[in-house]
Sequence to fold (359 residues):
Amino acid sequence: MANELIATAVRNALASVEIPGGGELAGYGGLSEIIVTTGAVAFAISVAPGMEAAFGPARVAAQAAAEKVAEGRKVMVSLTSDRAQAATGQAKAQGRPGPPPREAVPGVRHIVAVGSGKGGVGKSTVAVNLALGFAAEGLRTGILDADLYGPSIPKLLGLEGKPAVRDDGIFAPHEAYGLKAMSIGSMLTANQAVVWRGPMATSALRQLLRESDWGGLDVLVVDLPPGTGDIQISLVQQVPLLGAVIVSTPQDLALIDAKKAMDMLLRTDVPILGLIENMSYFVAPDTGKRYDIFGHGGAKTAASTFDIPFLGEIPLVMSIRESSDAGRPVVATDPDGAEAQAFRAIVRTILAASPQLKP
Ligand SMILES: Nc1ncnc2c1ncn2[C@@H]1O[C@H](COP(=O)(O)OP(=O)(O)OP(=O)(O)O)[C@@H](O)[C@H]1O
Fold:
């Protein structure tokens, strides 16, 4: 059935779900839009603060009702109390309970997030190649594409099709170049735009993270969405992170954004593993000559100003772009090349500073 028809079928099915206080879910004002992709159905139920527990059975019933008509798609139902979430920071300041404690992900020893202050700086490219670098050092490694708004991991790793879903509803991640990989992008059709609202996004990510069979990893690399909004904050608050790596280009403006990302991480008590300068300098493809056309070195200076480690620089090279766009990341396909070595040197720096990552 087409996605729109499934959405209608789900809405109809929700008419049989009772909600506290009488009435049915399909007609309830707190029910979000029903998002249907080739692999998933997602919707949120917003409730007044304090009503979460009362709505618990309705959520379970909604999940079951939607599954019956979802034709094998994974159903993700989130129950949220928006105002409670927005008030978390305030609550903390006023001595009320803050966000729920960070909960470890079963089967994953450590999580390293890769973030950036803004889009387009090469964060996903760096995340994939760092993950492959960890794998090359003998770590059992996975990658989670948390960039719901612009998931690019399927393209970067050449993933095809949806991840399999086991009988018990748990995802079996894709495998690519020795990595376990999960991305919401694998569940979207090409160019399908999905408007994730805040609580739905965090809930979808929660499920990708916790309802996947990671099968025992030393490290899971999480490619965060660019920027420093609520999604990023709630994401880094969901799990205990070993730390985060920030990717920036050398330009001043990108560095200002990188600074915002660092501030956000510090506010949420996430250790910063360091800063990477991507597209640091240009290497001419014909002569191999290096040109510092972007004022290279800005990130290094910024790192020392903010007193965080500078992890290294990655040149702007055509081969990185072409191989990324073709789903053949350099660290896997040309491990001895200069580009791959730049990523691997950064991985070794991270491992030297965080030896607990090693098996
Ligand atoms: N070092 C590099 N040299 C050449 N091209 C690069 C390099 N790093 C990234 N790119 C290219 O830049 C583009 C953007 O990269 P990428 O998607 O990784 O960025 P991003 O920061 O994750 O962006 P967004 O968050 O908007 O998805 C891609 O086409 C990628 O191939």
Notes: The longest strand covers residues 272-283. Residues 52-69 form the longest helix (18 residues).
